[in-house]
Automatic annotation (TrEMBL):
Keywords: Amino-acid biosynthesis, Aminotransferase, Branched-chain amino acid biosynthesis, Pyridoxal phosphate, Transferase. Belongs to the class-IV pyridoxal-phosphate-dependent aminotransferase family. Its EC number is 2.6.1.42. One of its GO terms (molecular function) is branched-chain-amino-acid transaminase activity. Pathway: Amino-acid biosynthesis; L-isoleucine biosynthesis; L-isoleucine from 2-oxobutanoate: step 4/4; Amino-acid biosynthesis; L-leucine biosynthesis; L-leucine from 3-methyl-2-oxobutanoate: step 4/4; Amino-acid biosynthesis; L-valine biosynthesis; L-valine from pyruvate: step 4/4. It catalyses: L-isoleucine + 2-oxoglutarate = (S)-3-methyl-2-oxopentanoate + L-glutamate; L-valine + 2-oxoglutarate = 3-methyl-2-oxobutanoate + L-glutamate; L-leucine + 2-oxoglutarate = 4-methyl-2-oxopentanoate + L-glutamate. This is branched-chain-amino-acid transaminase.
Length: 353
């Protein structure tokens, strides 16, 4: 793919405050590319990060034909820019596009566009431990018509955001509330792809959990709405009697790259990892019997996020006040893999040349 690069004439970086939160500041440039049904993908370019001019009739506003990815660029100990398993995100993006009746992007083009953009805005990658440059590729329908049908035109954009620690308290365990009422996904639905609509339908539960004083929602799935599924943007794992249990990929949960990488590492370290259904009753019984030594979420945004407390129907189930050894080892190993050139699993790391 031949990408046209038009460099910005302003330098925003000097006026951008020190990064603390998540996804609030954006770099100088963005990648954009347009799809027209009769022409296919056209006009790949890197230009100044700027507003878009869009008609109020644009179909994405009305019917949410929109997908995205989330990944990160890091600086390693040699000052090189590193991506973590970018082809996994490229594959998942393609899967999301197909599910939403959208045209997809070839995996090589997806990774190339990210690499070129990150290379240009390399100076924005923060270097303090736990920080990174968040990469947000996304695509949306741009037909200016209110009919409900797959759009004939689309826009693919990549924006970059320097991020601090996802959780302001660092690695302190979070509290999660099991929602007994709402669903974020169902069999035959879109729970296993990253489409925008999955997140808008999760916001009310997230708001209610926050109001009750909990950080995140733990979703239930299964035909009887009693199977542990996942957290807002993280997969979930439990260490129960030295076995690591995580929900299986049944088509209703997102196949996280961090989940997959964690399972590989855990098996290498000798843990038994079971990908299986677990009912909420089974989980709570294990917690009551003091058999759950750790619970943690896995996902790009926070990498590993320990869970200290789970609430269900007004009762709090306490797991731990501190990060446990399994979560800590995973967290540190991922940090090493991304930043140290002598860490294991070099094949997971792609250096942006
Ligand atoms: C993105 C996401 C994850 C985590 O996936 P990673 O590839 O590990 O970042 C898990 N669950 C949901 C619902 C997500 O959107």
């Amino acid at each position: 793919m031949e990408i046209t690069i038009i460099k910005t004439t302003t330098n925003k970086k000097l006026s951008t405050p020190v990064v603390t939160g998540f996804g609030k500041y954006f770099t100088d440039h963005m990648f954009t590319m347009d799809y027209i049904k009769t022409v296919a993908w056209t006009n790949p370019q890197i230009i100044t990060f700027d507003y878009l001019a869009i008609s109020p009739s644009t179909s994405v506003f009305h019917y949410a034909q929109s997908v995205f990815e989330g990944m990160k660029a890091y600086l390693n100990d040699k000052g090189e820019v590193v991506l973590f398993r970018p082809y996994e995100n490229a594959k998942r993006f393609k899967k999301s596009c197909l599910r939403m009746a959208m045209p997809y992007i070839e995996e090589d083009d997806f990774v190339q566009a990210i690499s070129e953009l990150v290379k240009l805005d390399k100076d924005w990658i923060p270097s303090e431990e736990g920080t990174s440059l968040y990469i947000r590729p996304f695509m949306f329908a741009t037909d200016e018509v209110l009919g409900v049908h797959p759009s004939n035109t689309y826009k693919f954009i990549i924006i970059l955001s320097p991020v601090g620690h996802y959780y302001p308290n660092g690695l302190k365990p979070i509290s999660i509330s099991i929602n007994p009422i709402y669903s974020r996904s169902f069999f035959g639905g879109t729970g296993d792809v990253k489409c925008a609509a999955n997140y808008s339908i999760s916001l009310l539960a997230q708001k209610e959990a926050k109001e009750k004083g909990f950080d995140q929602v733990l979703w239930l799935g299964g035909k009887e709405h009693n199977i542990i599924a996942e957290v807002g943007a993280m997969n979930i794992m439990f260490v129960i009697n030295n076995e690591v249990i995580t929900p299986k990929l049944d088509g209703t949960i997102l196949a996280g790259v961090t989940r997959d990488s964690s399972i590989t590492l855990l098996k290498e370290w000798g843990y038994i990892v079971s990908e299986r259904d677990m009912t909420v009753d089974e989980l709570l019984e294990h917690i009551n019997n003091n058999e759950v030594s750790e619970a943690f979420g896995t996902g790009t945004a926070a990498t590993i996020s320990p869970v200290g407390l789970i609430e269900y129907k007004g009762t709090n189930y306490h797991i731990s006040d501190d990060i446990g050894p399994v979560a800590k080892r995973l967290y540190e190993t991922f940090n090493d893999i991304k930043t140290k050139s002598d860490a294991p699993h070099r094949e997971w790391v792609q250096i942006v040349k």
